[in-house]
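Quick review question:
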C-alpha cells in the first residue's frame, strides 16, 4: 500500500535524532515533575490543614521564577550551546532535589517549596535551548507536526502523572517521592548526552554585551506584529489561568464535595482528552494555521471554565475536563509553532524569554491573590471571571486571521 504524505512526515520526524532524544529525556523529566507536583501538593495540604493561601504558594513557587528568570535564561540560551545547557540544568535540578531531601530528614518540611523553586528557575535556561534545537534540526514544514507529537507526550503524563504522584506519596511518603524526583532528573540529564554535538557556530560570539542582546530581543518582538499580538494574547490567558490554577483542589473538595484525592480522576479525564486531541492535531497540523488552532483552544477553555464554575456534578465536571483536554494541545501547538515560524534561530531564546514572562507574570499576579480571593468570593465567581479573561485573550488573535488571511510576518532587522 502506498504511503501517504503524513506517514512519510511522521516517519521522518521519528527518525530525527534530536526528536528521539528529547522525547526520551522528556519521559523521565515528566515522571520527576508529576511526582513533585502531586507529592508536594498533598504534603502541603496535610501539613497546613488545607489552607488555601499555603496551597496557592506552591504554584507561586513554581511559576514566579518563570516570570523573573525567563528573559535572562532565554538571553543566555541564545549565547550558550543548547545541548550543554540542557544537561547542566537537569543535573543541577537533581542536586537541588537531594538538598531538599536532606532538609526534610532534619525536620524542615517547608523546604519542599525550595525543590519547586530551583527546578523552575533552571527550566528557564533549559526550555529555550530545547526550542532552539527544534528550530535548528527540524524542517520548518514539520515543526507543527513535531510540536503535536511533543505535546502528546505531555498529554500522556497528564493521565499517568497524577496517578503516579498520588500513589508514590500515599504509599511511600514525601521522602521517597523527593528521592524519585532527583533520580528522574539525573536520568533525563544522562539521556541528553545522546544529542548531536553542539556546533561551534551555535556559540554566541562575544561581540556584544548581554544588555545589548536583551535590547535587541525586545526590538525584535516589538517589530513583529504576530509576536506582539501573541504577547497580548498571553496576558489574557495568564490572568485567566492564574485565578484557577491553585484552586482546582477546592473545586473537588467544595464544589463537588469529594475527597481531595479525587482530583486525580479529573486530571486523568483531562489527560485522556489531551492524548486524543494531540493525535487529532497531528493529522490536522499541516492544514490549520497555528493562530486558528490557538484561538480554538482558548475559546473551548473559556466555555469549559464557565461550566466547571457552575457544575456540582462530578460526571459533568469530568466530561468538561475531557473536552477541555481535547483542545488543550491546540493552545500549546499553536503558541510554539507561531514562535518558531516567526522567529530566527538566533532569537529563539529571547523571544521565548519575553513572551513567557508576559504569560507567567500575569498568571503569577492572579495566582498570588487567588487564595485571598477564594476567602472573599465564591468559586463560581472566580471561574466565570477566568472564562471572560480567556475570551479577551482570543480577541487579540483576531487580526491574525481576519478575512481568512493570516498576518504572519518576519520581524524587521534589529
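Suggested answer, residue by residue:
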Amino acid at each position: 500500500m502506498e504511503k501517504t504524505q503524513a506517514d512519510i512526515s511522521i516517519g521522518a520526524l521519528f527518525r530525527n535524532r534530536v526528536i528521539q532524544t528529547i522525547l526520551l529525556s522528556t519521559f523521565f523529566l515528566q515522571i520527576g515533575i508529576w511526582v513533585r507536583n502531586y507529592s508536594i501538593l498533598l504534603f502541603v495540604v496535610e501539613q497546613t490543614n488545607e489552607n488555601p493561601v499555603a496551597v496557592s504558594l506552591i504554584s507561586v513557587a513554581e511559576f514566579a521564577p518563570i516570570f523573573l528568570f525567563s528573559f535572562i535564561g532565554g538571553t543566555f540560551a541564545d549565547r550558550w550551546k543548547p545541548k550543554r545547557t540542557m544537561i547542566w540544568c537537569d543535573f543541577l535540578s537533581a542536586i537541588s532535589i537531594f538538598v531538599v531531601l536532606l532538609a526534610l530528614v532534619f525536620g524542615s518540611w517547608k523546604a519542599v517549596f525550595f525543590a519547586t523553586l530551583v527546578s523552575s528557575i533552571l527550566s528557564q535556561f533549559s526550555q529555550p535551548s530545547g526550542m532552539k534545537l527544534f528550530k535548528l534540526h527540524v524542517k520548518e514544514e514539520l515543526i507543527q507536526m513535531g510540536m503535536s507529537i511533543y505535546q502528546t507526550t505531555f498529554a500522556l503524563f497528564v493521565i499517568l502523572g497524577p496517578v503516579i504522584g498520588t500513589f508514590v506519596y500515599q504509599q511511600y511518603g514525601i521522602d521517597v517521592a523527593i528521592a524519585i524526583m532527583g533520580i528522574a532528573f539525573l536520568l533525563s540529564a544522562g539521556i541528553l548526552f545522546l544529542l548531536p554535538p553542539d556546533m561551534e557556530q551555535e556559540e554566541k560570539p562575544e561581540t556584544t554585551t548581554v544588555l545589548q542582546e536583551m535590547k535587541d530581543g525586545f526590538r525584535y518582538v516589538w517589530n513583529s506584529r504576530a509576536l506582539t499580538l501573541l504577547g497580548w494574547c498571553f496576558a489574557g490567558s495568564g490572568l485567566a489561568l492564574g485565578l484557577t490554577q491553585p484552586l482546582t483542589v477546592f473545586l473537588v473538595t467544595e464544589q463537588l464535595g469529594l475527597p481531595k484525592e479525587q482530583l486525580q480522576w479529573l486530571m486523568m479525564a483531562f489527560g485522556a482528552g489531551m492524548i486524543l486531541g494531540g493525535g487529532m492535531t497531528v493529522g490536522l497540523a499541516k492544514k490549520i494555521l497555528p493562530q486558528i488552532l490557538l484561538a480554538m483552544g482558548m475559546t473551548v477553555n473559556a466555555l469549559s471554565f464557565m461550566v466547571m464554575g457552575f457544575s456540582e456534578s462530578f460526571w459533568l465536571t469530568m466530561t468538561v475536563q475531557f473536552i477541555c483536554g481535547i483542545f488543550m494541545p491546540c493552545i500549546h501547538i499553536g503558541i510554539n509553532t507561531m514562535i518558531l515560524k516567526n522567529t530566527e534561530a538566533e532569537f529563539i531564546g529571547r523571544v521565548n524569554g519575553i513572551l513567557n514572562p508576559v504569560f507567567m507574570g500575569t498568571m503569577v499576579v492572579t495566582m498570588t491573590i487567588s487564595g485571598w480571593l477564594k476567602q472573599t468570593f465564591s468559586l463560581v465567581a472566580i471561574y466565570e471571571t477566568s472564562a471572560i479573561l480567556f475570551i479577551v485573550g482570543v480577541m487579540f488573535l483576531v487580526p491574525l486571521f481576519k478575512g481568512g488571511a493570516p498576518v504572519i510576518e518576519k520581524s524587521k532587522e534589529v
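Why it works: Residues 171 and 177 are 10 Å apart (CA to CA). The two ends are 50 Å apart (CA to CA).
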